[in-house]
Amino acid sequence: MMDTVIFDLGGTLIEYAGEYAVWPDLETPGFTAVYRYLNQNGLHLPEFEQFKQTGFALLPARWQAAMRGEQNLRLVDLLAAVLAELGITGVPESQLSAAGKLYESAICSQAEPMPRARETLAEVKAAGYKIGLLSNTMFTGAAHVADLERFGLADYFDAMLFSADAGKWKPNAAPFLQVMAELGVGGETAVYIGDDPAGDIVGGQRAGMKTIHFQSSQRFQMPEDAQPDAHIRHLSELLPTLTQL
To answer: Are 168 and 178 in contact (CB under 8 A)?
Structure first.
C-alpha cells in the first residue's frame, strides 16, 4: 500500500519559466541581475549578450554532468566558471555569493504556483500520506524554501532535499533514497511525481519507487527507458491516481 508521495518542485508545484518557453532561455533574468551587479562593483565585463551566451554555453554540460553524478552544480560555481571563461578570475567568494542571491531572486520573483498546488498538497496530506520534496536545482535550498513559504506550500512537507545542497542529483538513486530515509519509508510504499521523465521517472524507478509523470508542459520528451506507472495532466488528477496505484 502506498503511504508516501514525493514531489518534484519546478514544473510540478511551482513554475519558474516566466515568459520564457525553453531552457536555458529562462535563466536570462538571473544573468541580467548578476551582470548589473558585477558591473556596478567594478568588474570589466563584455557586452551583456556575450556574458549571457557564455553562461548558456556552460550550463547544459555542467547540468548533465551533475545528473550523471560526476560533479555537483552550485550557482556560485557556475558564475565563477562563466567569469573565468571571460578571462576574469579572483572574484571574492562573498561577491559571487551576493551575485548568486540576486540571480536567485530574479528567477524566483517570476515564479508562480502551479494550478491547485496548495489544494493538492492539502488533499494528499488529509488522505494520510507522508509528503516529501526532491528538486534538481543549482540554487540554494533556502531560496526554494522561501518560495514554498510565500505560496503557502512549505508546511505540508515532512522532508525536503535540494540537489545542490546535498551534492546528489536525479536520476541517480541516492537523492531519492536519502529523502525516503528521512521519511522512514522504503521504495515499495513510495510514489514520485514529476514533469521531467529523464530525471523524475527514471530516477524514481532506480530507487525502487512507483512514478507518476505530470505532463505540465511540452518541454520534455519521454526517454525509452522511462516507464511511469501513471500519467496525469492536472494536479487535480493526483489523488484519484494514487488510490488506483
So the answer is: yes
Cell numbers found for residue 190: 513510495
Instruction: List the one residue out of 192, 156, 154, 165 whose CA is nearest residue 176.
Output: 192
pTM of the model: 0.95
Domain boundaries, the chain: 4-15+112-244, 25-108
CATH topology of domain 4-15+112-244: Rossmann fold (3.40.50)
pLDDT one-digit tens code per residue, 174-228: 999 999 999 999 999 999 999 999 999 999 999 999 999 999 877 777 777 788 9
**What is the DSSP-derived secondary structure letter of residue 198?**
I
H helices of 109-168, in order, are 117-126, 141-150, 163-166
pLDDT digits (tens, 9 = 90+) for 42-101: 899 999 999 999 999 999 999 999 999 999 999 999 999 999 999 999 999 999 999 999
> What is the rounded distance in angstroms from the CA atom of residue 196 to the CA atom of residue 6?
14
Contact 164, 67 (CB under 8 A): no
What is d(CA 49, CA 225) in angstroms, rounded to the nearest whole number? 37
